[in-house]
Each structure stands twice: as C-alpha cells, then as structure tokens.
Amino acid sequence: MTTPDQESALNFNQTQYQNVQSPLDVSYAHSINTIASLRDYIISEDFLAGQRLNGRMSNVRRFFCLFVTFDFLFTSLMWIICVMLNGEYIIKALTEQVIHYNIHTSLFDIVLVSFCRFVILILFYAVIYVNHWIIISISTAATCGFLITKVLYFDWPHSSQPVFEVLLVLVSFILAWGEAWFLDFRVIPQETYANRYIVAGENERTPLIRSYVQGLPSMYTESVGNFYSPQGSPEGSLHRYQPNELYPRYIVPLRLSRQEEELYKDVANKTLIEAWELFQMNDWILQKVHQNDSVYSRIGSNKKKIFKLQADIETSPRYLLDELYYREQEFPKWNSAVKESHKVHSFDECTDITYTISKDSAGGLVSSRDFVNLRHWAKRANSYIICVCKTEHPSLPNNKKMTRGENGVGCFVMEAVDNPNKCILHWIVNIDLKLWLPSGILDKEMAAMMFKFVKDLRNHISSRTNGIHAEFFAYL
C-alpha cells in the first residue's frame, strides 16, 4: 500500500516528465518559489553611481559639482598667472584689471563669467536639484556668446602675453562645453536609470504604502524580501552578489515601459515566424554524421553558412523545452561550451532576454564571446520551438574585455514522435563570431561543437532521470 505522496511520484515517473510544469509558469505567480535567485541578475555600475543613498546627492552629480568648482578655480588661477606675467606689482595689476576694467584690455570678465556659471549651476543642480538640461544649455550658450564677443573686441595686437590669454579663452570655452556634455550624457541618464529601478511600476493603482519590494523582474509579483528583513550590507555594497571577472558590470532587472516591452515582443514574434520558415526549408545539405546524429548546412540570405543539428533524444518534447528554456541558468553545469548564463529580463511566460558567455573553443582559435539574446517559444504542429536572435539591453553595453558575438535567427525545435518519451531535436545555429576562419576549419569546428552539445545534453538528461528515479524509489 502506498501513500498519496508515493502515488504522485509514481504518476510523475510514468509520464516521463511530459507534463512537467515550467519553473516560471505564470500559474505560480503568487508563490515565493517562482522567485529566481538574485545571482541570476547583475547590478550595473551606472545604477550605483546614479542612486541617492538616504536622500543624499548621487555620486555622479557630486562629481559634476566638483567639476563646476574646478572650472571656476582653474580659470581664476590662469587669469592670475596672466596678470603676474605682465611684470607689474600685483596690487597695481589687479587694480587695472578689475577696478579700471576695459573690455579691450582686461580678462577679468572671463573669470566673472566663470563665477556666474559656477553660482548658477551649483544653485540649480546642487541646491534645488534640478534634473533637466535647460539651465546648463542657457549658461553654456551665454558663455559661448560672450567669449566670441570677447575675441572680437579684445586688443590682441597690444597684448603682452597673447599665448596665455588665448589659452584662457579656449580653456573657458572647453570647460563650459565639458560641463554641458557631462550633465546631459552622464548625470541625467544615470540618475534616471537608477530612478527607473527604484520606483518601477508607479501608476495610478500603485498603493501609497507599498507592501512589496520594488525592482524585481516584471513577471514576478512577490519577493522573498516581503517575508523577512535581510541583514543590511554597506551602502552601495554588492557583497551579496558574485562578481564576474570577465563582465564586472552588474545587470539590473529593469522594469521596462509597456511600449518597450511590446517592441521586444513584436521582434520575438517575427523571429518565431522566420525561424519556423527556416526550419521547414528543404535545401539543407548533409555535412557530417556521427553516431546517428547529423549536421546539415545551407547558405543564408547574407551569404553566410547556417548549420542544423538533428538528433534523437530520450525524453519528451515538453521536458526538453523546460530544460532548454526555463533552466538556462543551469547551462554552465552541463554544457561544456558555456561559461556563464543569466536571465536578464522576462517579459512573459514565453519571452525573455538572456546573457551568455561562451568558453574558448577551436583549440584556442576562438576566444570567449558574450551574447545577448532575445528568446521566445511556442507550439507549432506537433513540435515546440524556441527561437533566438541577437538583441540589445540597456543593462548590457559592449564589454571592452570581450568580443560580442551575434546570433542571427536560429532555433531549437523539439519534434514529437510516436513514443511520448522520445523526441527529435533540431538545432539551427546562425552565428557571427566576429572572426574570420577558413571555411574548412569553421565547418569542422561547428560540427564538433554541435555533436559535443548533444552529448552533454544527453548526459544531463540521463543524470536528472536517474536522480528522479532514486527519489521515487526512496518513497517505496
């Protein structure tokens, strides 16, 4: 006689995982078990620089204020040097420059303009904390207008130190534009970036007193953070994350706007159509056969070769879908070609963005590459298809330490057969490694990589099957 738990385990074993519930199914949206490990998400340095800790000024804005202060002090120092180089007594020289000011002979007005710019920018961007470029655009335009006028009216032929005086004008011009550039391209974007994460999901239905931790991926409604108070870490600390030496920037699980999410979903749907059409084409040429596994190839519209693997797998199509889509963070544990794999953003149950780092391959000819992919799965006829293509994400700029590869339209197709516990796996690879290799070497290495992948996959599925069987017999 068996208990209800033993009967459940027996039923699960008999169906050979055909109806395994995906770990991110929306039907579990209200369970804390759906929360992915925070190790799967990385926080960006831009977020840290733009955040306001305990209401204080952000790091990037504080640097901007220091830059504005440096502008005024440096301009004043250069002006004093120009005055001293005239060889006159300091009091007399300053009196002629300031008290007996003349636009044709004195450069004190450049210092005065720098001081006015300093006061205005500190007032609006440090005290009032304005988050708009209009103030600095006015101050920069006014500075440029004045400097052009100064150049036209200044008596250059009778100047005693023309080189230093020209430098003073040019330095003032460059610093004014440098301030405008830094505010518009660094301060405002980084603070907006951090603010989007912290106050994600603000709308008319958001309660005044929030009961949920903000900033988790959009498909999750709850967080383990709602059930306990973790020990605080130092301000701005990332000690709870494991840094990646090749990609030290940390991915923020951003909550994109509805329009941005719809754009990603539209691209995913178009990719699905293209991938299915690519799979159904009948011009594939057999490239190599290894132990009943076959690799085919064809020339794509961009004149580059596309590869397809066909292999029999001892598991159901649905279970293989779960392994290849919902458990991508486990790829490094069993896929010998993958070094790291992270889920960056989930749009819904069937669409997400992932970040993957490959290992060196081809005997060192191809160094490690990173990939940012948009993925989407659906059911077509008697098959499940996971389409993939390259994409971009605001949290994943190009890494200077690594070449970014690109995936064209490709897919996994899990085709059902008569036996419900078996399927045919088709894997279409359309990859650009940003590296030229002779076609003979490329064909050989791609075929070897695909055969190695399916071998790793079989070993992984076998180990999971044996593990579940052991759990089942433990109930008996």
UniProtKB/TrEMBL annotation:
- Please state every residue range assigned to the domain named MENTAL: 57-229
Segments traversing the membrane: 63-86, 106-126, 133-154, 166-183
Report the residue ranges that make up the START domain in this protein: 257-466
Which terms in the GO cellular component ontology are assigned?
Answer: endoplasmic reticulum membrane; endoplasmic reticulum-endosome membrane contact site; late endosome membrane; lysosomal membrane
Identify the main location. Answer: membrane
Query: What is the recorded membrane topology of this protein?
Result: Multi-pass membrane protein
**Which GO terms are recorded in the biological process aspect for this UniProt protein?**
vesicle tethering to endoplasmic reticulum
Question: What InterPro entries does the record point to?
Answer: MENTAL (IPR019498), StAR-like (IPR000799), STARD3 (IPR051869), START-like_dom_sf (IPR023393), START_lipid-bd_dom (IPR002913)
What is this protein identified as?
A: Uncharacterized protein
